[in-house]
Amino acid sequence: MERNAAARGVAAAGGATAAEASTSVFGTAAALAAVSGATSVSAATPAPGASAAAHGGASPAAGATVRGGTVGLAQGSALYIAAVLGTGILVLPALAAQVAGPASILAVGALIVLSVPLAGTFAALAARFPDAGGVATFVRLALGRTAARMTGYWFFFGVSVGLPVVALLGAEYVVAVLGVERWVGFVIAPLFILPSLVLNAFGLRVSGRVQLGLSALLVIVVVGVIVLAAPATKASNFEPLLPHGWAGVGVAISLFVWAFAGWEAVTHIAGEFVDPRRVIPRATAIAIVVVGAAYLGLQIVTVGVLGGAAGASAVPLLDLVQSTAPSWARIVVAAIAGVVALGVLNAYVGAFAKLGASLGREGDLPRWFSPGAEVGGLPRRALLLVAGLAAVDYTLMVFSGGALAPFILVHTSCMVAVYALGVVAALRLLRRFSAGWWMSGVSVLLVAGLLALAGPHLLAPAVLAAAALLVTVVSNLHRKKAS
Q1: DSSP per residue over 155-192, as a string?
Q2: What is the DSSP letter of 264?
Q3: Nearest to residue 125, comparing CAs of 257, 281, 352?
Q4: Which of 14, 86, 248, 380 is in Cβ range 3.0-4.6 Å of 100 for a Cys bridge?
Q5: What pairs with residue 235 in β-bridges?
Q6: Residue 68 CB: number of other CB atoms within 10 A?
């Protein structure tokens, strides 16, 4: 019962966000590859605050080719795959099948297509302006310091609330396999976060290689589940196509937005890429293809094997494998959950630490946290802050009895807020009428829809925005007194 409630919490959170829109799946790689050569700063209208003086000389120069990082195409693709594929494979295919039936397969196809503009926008920005500040840097260049501070706070303090959610989702599968009481999951969950903190403390060279291995294993096990389950599919489970009408498809698309979010996470470590302008768009294209194929294949076998029983528990992959494979396969599925949780946490912890160092560098956090914001730097002090935030969030989750919905809603609403300012910044920073500019234009319309659907859940980003404004006021007062 409790795990069912957790699954429904994910569904409710997914409903707080919604879909995106644009081009053809088979044009993904070409579209994103075009971005790498088509982006530049608008020469006609200088962005406010874009000068080096305005940013303390810390932000990257527009159009500069940044080299010296350690993350290549393979590691970069792995980081994107982990950030986007993530924990969604543990629950979303079954939940989507529950709300839309066989038409949930159409929802997955739509999300693959609709993800292209948003992914392309952030790939273009990260390739052009590789910096530890990520979206906050893009917003600073286009919209000024206060807007950038808001963006940084939304991501660092709001989106990071998702860390314990990821850990607990992984622990749910381990608990189910072991057949122990649910409280054991609260003991296991922190063990998913700890390795990510340790790996990132030793730098992205180590962390990136581990991520490559984790992502490769993740793709292998997903393919394994699809292959094992495929023979048990029943044609009758694919009828009727629309048991809940097109409204059900819309809900399924909203659920999968949670799965396909994450394109902005790797922007914070863009400076660690060997050649950001060349590697990032290609890594993004590879990730879209891999993630899309994984979800599409998994959705087909989920509908074909589980049918109307999909979504009956919080561990649907266990149900799927149990229906089609020997009992030992449950252990394999638990390993999948572990790989997913470790991969996602590894990608996000590194991004949060880099952003924390960048916020310290810019004076948005105490400057004590600033070491490590530079390319190749190890943001160990900021990593301590990330660990502290994760501990606080996890403690609150434990006291809530493991209720996932409130934490997911904070995460998704802050994510939408980050996207909103990020895509507006892209319209100002990317060369007008380039591929990246057009993608950002489409994304602005789509994110406006996401904001409308988020509604009252925007309270969390509103509070963080108020904190950013307060910091601006205090900083200005100090500056006036000093002068």
Answers
A1: IIIIGGGHHHHHHHHHHHHHHHHHT--THHHHHHTHHH
A2: T
A3: 281
A4: 248
A5: none
A6: 11
